[in-house]
Amino acid sequence: MSRKQIKTELLIHDLKNPLAVVRAGIEGLISRRDFYGSLTEKQEKVLFRMLRNIRAAGLMVNDTLELARAEEGIVHKSNVVFGKMITLLLAELFDLMDTGISDCIRNCGKAEKVKKITASGRLFLQFETKIWEQSFFLDEAKTVQILRNLLGNAFKHKKKRVDFSAGMEKNHIIFSVKDDGPGIPGHYQKKIFESYYQIIPKEYGTVRGHGIGLAGVMTLLRELDGELTLNSESGKGAEFIVKIKI
Ligand SMILES: Nc1ncnc2c1ncn2[C@@H]1O[C@H](COP(=O)(O)OP(=O)(O)O)[C@@H](O)[C@H]1O
Ligand SMILES: [Mg+2]
Q1: Does domain 77-245 have CATH number 3.30.565.10?
Q2: Pocket test for ligand 1, best of 123, 146, 153 (most atoms within 8 A of CB)
């Protein structure tokens, strides 16, 4: 790594602290009203918007650092319990959209309950219940980041629903993220994996992109000996299938 890169990374790393302080402050104002005083409905709305955005900023910092690690070839594998990883992933995802749902996901723990809660947020999970307790040898941070980025995209583009499934195949774990949005026309299907490429620059109402994007996803996958398949047709939604060696 060059000196300049190291400096940039250090700077990004140091962003973690001020972000954490701001985040804890906002969370305190929302949850400890006995201490800080009551909030009007309008104040509460502003604080929740701030909270979603500060969480998104935190995830971007993590994504950037993890991506830099992937580029350096650093992989941290450990035994990861499937249900715990999915709980973390989905709680982080809903943090950016619906804090109520993310709190429920964090606190419920059971596979069937998580499926029910996420369905109320238009995310439909499909996996065998027994896989929830199983553990797999993989790099959790990178796997979660890949999936969070794909799910983030699916939510950004969906019409009515996102389907997320997981399963095993020999020594691979396979995830599918599918939405019912506008899909990706054939001639764009290579281009979208290039850095900073966007088909149509859109005006997004909330946070614009929460992370590393598809180019980053590919970098992470390369380090995990992973593969990505895209199935999509214009007007017919998009399905991203990820295969990771375990
Ligand atoms: N699920 C999807 N449905 C339709 N288009 C998608 C989907 N995921 C990605 N894209 C297209 O690929 C482009 C690149 O995606 P990405 O790298 O994640 O960047 P970003 O999400 O910041 O726009 C997006 O701008 C979008 O045009
Ligand atoms: Mg994206």
Answers
A1: yes
A2: 153
